[in-house]
Amino acid sequence: MIKIGKNSLMFENSYLKDTYTISGPLEFEGPVGEYIDYSLSDNRMNQKSWEKAEMYMLDTGIKKLIENCEDEIELAILGDLNNQIIASNYVMRNYKFPLLGIYSACSTFTESIIIGSTFIDSLEFDNIIVGASSHNSGSERQFRFPTEYGGQKKITSTYTVTGAGVGLLSNKKSKIKITKATLGIVYDAKIKDPSDLGTAMAPAAALTFLNHLNDFNVTPDEYDLILTGDLSSYGSKIFLEIIKEHGIIIKKNYNDCGLLIYDIHNQDVLAGGSGAAASALVTFGYIKSLLEKRILKKVLIIATGALFNPIMTLQKETIPCIAHAIVLEGVE
Amino acid sequence: MNNQIVQKVINRNKPKINYFKNLLWAFLIGGLIGLSGEIFFKIFHNILKLSKENSLSLMSMSLVVISSILTGFGIYDKIGQVAGAGTILPITGFSNSMTSAALESKTEGLIQGIFANMLKLAGTVIISGSLAAFIVSFLIYLSEIL
């Protein structure tokens, strides 16, 4: 592994060997639902609470992923949106390998891949599990209002994705390679409204993107697809305008995981999907499949996270945000 | 990245909220809830010949029970998304805020969950309502002795 520029890394031996994705029914019915491995029949899945339903998804994902190679796994790097990342922490009591629990809001997913690839590339680990999960109702109650509360949500509000995406990183060659990463810098765009996280996170995504282009001295045309995490319809527009003002124009190769996971015109999700599972499901389902089929060759994923909690919002604080980027490449 | 450019882009992309449409829906659905209250009152008072006080109480109770049931079936929040203040302000909104909080906290048990959280949202109404009642009655009292 080499450090490139101020904020970026280049990996030599980190491969995405396998993935497993599991989601709620709404995500499964969405535009990229056909690439998700398994769907819950409902968001509760016979569990006693929303939190337990999230743990069930993550646990099932890990079990399926390591079905034949449990003894070879050396480390898991996982995170979720619950307080004290309980989904990851509680699920890992079922396994006998170490856990590094991480939190970076909805960019937890790419952060886990960056840390995992670093361990593989620099510390000679062989097999590492990475991933993230989130649950709509669990997040709603923690960050917003009770799910059935009848208040009007703003048009900029997003809908937290229910799902878990886990992947197995390995130093042995496979079809998808993790080649580059750009680490995020915390950026505060002075937004105070927790129902407009797309706007709050867009500048952080733009900052990471500009740093990425600068560090590697590349243009957006380098990538077949540039994906932001969960900026939603409002945040995506702001992201594109900010980089345009800085002289960077992305033509057609741009999308947002929050807009891919749901059909925002026909599904009742307001401005789009959000949550740590948004980028996890889209990347480990849809993108992985297109990379394997060689329809895409090089994809930049900039997962975005709003680093707030409801107490700080009530204390009238603004919302700091972060975005971590990774590059996935299909290899022969 | 230039911070001024960021703020400029954010400012020119401030989402436009259709206040007229929101007001209209709030008026229509809020009014409909008021109308249904009136219908309940007429049924209790004029048809069932109950006293005015009893009919008024029964009317409020009917609205509370109905909105509570609608909340349980996941319908009230869908109406609320369209109606906004039209469903929050009437007594049905109070019922919804208590039922939704109770439903949500069920998993933490009866006492620490439901009892502790049921007034999480509605508590603000009770406290500010009691405070307002105290201030107003104190002012009335003052005006009478002066």
Structure, described:
The complex is a heterodimer of chains A (332) and B (146). Chain A is an alpha/beta fold. In chain A, 33% of the residues lie in helices and 25% in strands. In chain A, the strands form 2 sheets. In chain A, strands 1, 2, 3, 4, 5, 6, 7, 9, 10, 11, 12, 13, 15 and 16 form a 14-stranded mixed beta sheet that branches. Chain A has a two-stranded parallel ribbon with strand order 8-14. In chain A, strand 5 (75-80), helix 3 (86-91) and strand 6 form a beta-alpha-beta unit. Chain A is globular and about 50 Å long. The two termini of chain A are 21 Å apart. In chain A, 57% of the residues are buried. With 146 residues, chain B is mainly α. Chain B has 8 helices and no strands. Chain B has helices at residues 3-12, 19-47, 52-72, 76-83, 85-88, 91-105, 110-117, 123-145. Chain B starts with a helix and ends with a helix. The mean pLDDT of chain B is 95. Classes of the chains: A alpha/beta (332), B mainly alpha (146). The interface between A and B is large, with 35 and 37 residues.
